[in-house]
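Weekly puzzle thread! Below is a chain. First person to post its structure in token form gets bragging rights.
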Amino acid sequence: GPPMPPERVADTLDYLRALDAAVQQMYAASASLMETIEGADAPAFRGWTGYDSIHRRNAQLRYLQLETKELDSSR
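Winning reply:
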């Protein structure tokens, strides 16, 4: 597709920061993967096309990254 305009790049970065903060907060509180997928919300971005499915997948991926990092550091 066409290149993304600069303001959309900033929006995407804001979304990723909100996602990361929500997932890290839930992970630190010992939430399960499913609890995090259901509960790690980024309300400012709910109006984005595909948010419901894409955000859940992104939350899952970020949770698994945190889990892998923790498991690797305990070896």
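Puzzle host: Confirmed. Bonus trivia for everyone else. The mean pLDDT is 94.
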